[in-house]
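Subject: for your reference before the review

Hello V.,

The reviewers asked for a structural picture of the protein, and I figured it would be easier to keep everything in one thread rather than splitting it across files. Below is the amino acid sequence we used in the manuscript, unchanged from the supplementary table.
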Amino acid sequence: MTLPQQIITVAMAVLATMLTRFLPFLLFPSQNKTPRFVIQLGELLPPAILGMLVIYSYREQLLHPTSMSVIALIAGLVTVGLHVWKRNMVLSILGGTAVYMFFINIL
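And here is what came back from the structure prediction:
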C-alpha cells in the first residue's frame, strides 16, 4: 500500500470512528426527550447480541461434535453457573476461561 493510500485509509477510519461517536449527540440533543424506539433498542439489543454470540461460538460444536465440544460446553455451563450464582461478570468469564484452559491443557 502506498503512502497516500495509507493516509486515506487512516483518515477514513478516523472519520468513521468520529461519526459513530458524535452522530447520536447530533441526532438526539440533550434538551429533547429520547425517542421510545431508541430506549427500546437499548433494552433489547444487548440480550439479542449476547444470544447471537453464544450461537456463533457454539455452532461448530453443535454441527460437528468432538471431545473439544464437550470441553466447550462444560466451560460454558461453568460460566453460566458462576454468573447465576454470584452475578459477577468478571468472575464468571474468568472461571469459565480457567475451566476451559484447564481441560485443554490436560487433554
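For the response letter, the relevant points are probably these. The mean pLDDT is 93. Residues 1-32 form one domain.

Happy to draft the paragraph if you're swamped.

O.
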